[in-house]
Amino acid sequence: MSVGPDEFRALLGRFATGVTIFTARDASGGDHGMTVSAFCSVSLTPPLVLACIARDADMFAVARDTQHFGVSLLAEQQKALSVRFADVPDNRFDGVGFVRGETGVVLFNDALGHLECRRVGWHDAGDHAICVGEVLRAHNGDGHPLLYYRGGYAQLDR
């Protein structure tokens, strides 16, 4: 018995996730970024995280070839930033506030937190790949998370 893609997407849409932006630099130093909700911790010792990157994503090759990447955990007021990096507009980084981590990756202002990672694994997984990173540096911010649930953005009830 097999589950079809539409049924699988509908089922997994019932699993609320946080929203992140995954950033990396290409070999020439150009910035790349994309919204990622398939992100989670893997290990506490050593501190490892993973992000799933679609094979047809604009930055698939950059993510595969990079040594370092950044992850910004988005706050509820950053929905527009999430939409911007989920779409394919030119000049995604123009007019957006960010700092550079020690490895040069973009980390967005006002995020709930930042992770700066060294890529330690890359695993093929169907129409995606799993990028595993060791967390080199982390920063905690304040606020409430931006959530994704059933195909749309959601907020925590407070």
Fold and architecture overview:
This protein has 158 residues and is mainly beta. The protein has a single domain, classed as Pnp Oxidase, Chain A. It is 14% helix and 44% strand. It has helices spanning 5-12, 60-65, 79-86, and strands spanning 17-18, 20-25, 31-36, 39-43, 48-54, 68-73, 98-100, 106-108, 113-125, 128-140, 147-149, 152-154. The protein has a 7-stranded antiparallel β-sheet with strand order 3-2-6-9-10-5-4. A 3-stranded antiparallel β-sheet has the order 1-11-12, with no helix packed on it. Strand 4 (39-43) and strand 5 (48-54) form a beta hairpin. The longest helix has 8 residues, at 5-12. The model has no long low-confidence stretch (mean pLDDT 94).
Summarize the structure.
This protein is mostly beta strands and 158 residues long. 14% of the residues lie in helices and 44% in strands. The chain has a single domain (5-153), classed as Pnp Oxidase, Chain A (Roll).
Task: For the structure shown, list the relevant keywords.
seven-stranded antiparallel β-sheet, 12 strands, mainly beta, 3 helices, Pnp Oxidase, Chain A, three-stranded antiparallel β-sheet, 158 residues
Quickly give the CATH architecture: Roll
Low-confidence stretches: none
Structural class: mainly beta
- Helix proportion: 10-25%
Largest sheet: 7 strands, antiparallel
Cα(first) to Cα(last) distance is 41 Å
**How would you write the strand order of the largest sheet?**
3-2-6-9-10-5-4
Q: Rg, please?
A: 15 Å
Q: Which overall shape is indicated by the principal axes computed on the Cα atoms?
A: globular
Beta-strand portion reads 35-45%
CATH fold-level name: Pnp Oxidase, Chain A
Average pLDDT over all residues: 94
Name of the CATH superfamily: Electron Transport, Fmn-binding Protein, Chain A
Strand-and-helix sequence, N→C? HEEEEEHEHEEEEEE
The tally of beta strands, per DSSP, is: 12
Count of structural domains: 1
Total helical segments:
3
